[in-house]
Amino acid sequence: MYFGVFKDLRNLGLPGSQDFDLYEGYYSEFYEAVAGRTDYDIPLLLEQAAALAGDGKVLELACGSGRVLMHLANRGFQTVGLDLSEDMLKLCRRKSEQLPPRLKNRIEVRQGDMTSFELGEKFPLIILSATSISLLRQQADLERMLQTVERHLADGGRFVFDYVLSNDIHNSQLRGGRVNGVTLDLGPDHKQFVLMGEEENLDDQSAVMNFYAEVIQGDQTKRYFGSTFKKFFPEPDIYASIEASGLRIVDTRTYSVEGDGNVRCLILEKEGAR
Predict the structure, then answer these.
(1) Could you tell me which residue, 168 or 81, shows the higher pLDDT?
(2) Spatial contact of 215 and 221, defined as CB atoms under 8 Å apart
(3) Which of 11, 138, 150, 203 has the most C-beta neighbours closer than 10 Å?
(4) Which positions ≥6 away from 106 have C-beta within 8 Å?
(5) Which of the 8 DSSP states describes residue 20?
(6) Does 50 fall in a domain?
(7) Mapping DSSP to helix (H, G, I), strand (E, B) and coil, where does residue 16 land?
């Protein structure tokens, strides 16, 4: 789980240390601060919602703190957000509570696994954004997710998701053992810093991300270790899983995303008249 300097730090047994996944506890807030600024995919997602959603709902998988949901709600769409992390959903609920009632009422969130959720309704548009396909651990998970999506799509409905192209999985500044850091000066008695690193496993096209944070408030220091897994599916494996799901590719887009390299977005459609 931990490697390099992160493993060394954890083995010190530092007082006040806690372990979290990237989407839990302290790191859920950190992820929101970092990923919440991402917007490369928003124009396409709004375009698809305008073409498909009508009076129907848009379902977002791995919705996190609601980055996409907020954009959709602001454009008048009813949304449902699904996420496995209760901490991320708490952030999403907190953000939606700060919205005007007309927007807040367009956002519904539920806890669930994107490979096995059962919502009892069908959607004209389902979204998996921000290369969150990398949260899946193996090919079987990808296939189950696509099958579950297919069951929840209305006839003629679409599923939009993206992934880092395999040629670009080495482009992150964190990969190759490099450690980056972020410092926060929040006042005379409140300082924070976060160290981040990533280690690749080239044999199975995956990576582990490690984090170490210290929060210093007055004479107290809290320490947080974090680790999360990422899977980079080869494009032929993605296409094979799509074919097995019964969905068909109707469009593709490619984006250059800072920190990730080239990201490809696929738009899949379920057969049948809308």
Answers:
(1) 81
(2) yes
(3) 150
(4) 72, 73, 76, 77, 78, 79
(5) E
(6) yes
(7) coil
Q: Are residues 240 and 257 in the same domain?
A: yes
Q: How far is CA 19 from CA 14, 64, 206, 237, in A?
A: 12, 20, 21, 33
First to last CA, the chain: 46
Average pLDDT of span 25-30: 80
Q: What global pTM score does this model have?
A: 0.88
Q: What pLDDT is attached to residue 110?
A: 97
Same domain for 100 and 205, yes or no, is: no
Tokens of 164: 């880092």
- Which alpha helices (H) appear in 75-193, and where do they start and end? 86-97, 101-104, 139-152
Number of domains into which the chain is organized: 2
Determine the 3-state secondary structure of 208 from DSSP: strand
Per DSSP, the three-state class of 86 is helix
- Determine the pLDDT at residue 173: 45
Same domain, 45 and 107: yes
Q: 124 by DSSP, 3-state: which?
A: strand
- The answer on pLDDT for 101 being more than 80 is yes
The answer to whether residue 30 is domain-embedded is no
pLDDT at 175: 52
What is the identity of the amino acid at 83?
D
Of 17-31, 206-220, 222-236, least confident by mean pLDDT is 17-31
Query: In terms of domains, do 139 and 202 share one?
Result: no
Residues spanned by the domain of 87: 35-165+233-269
171 pLDDT exceeds 80?
no
Domain containing 148 — which CATH number?
3.40.50.150
CB of 232 closer than 8 Å to CB of 134:
yes
pLDDT tens track for 250-267: 999 998 877 667 899 999
Across the chain, mean pLDDT equals 89
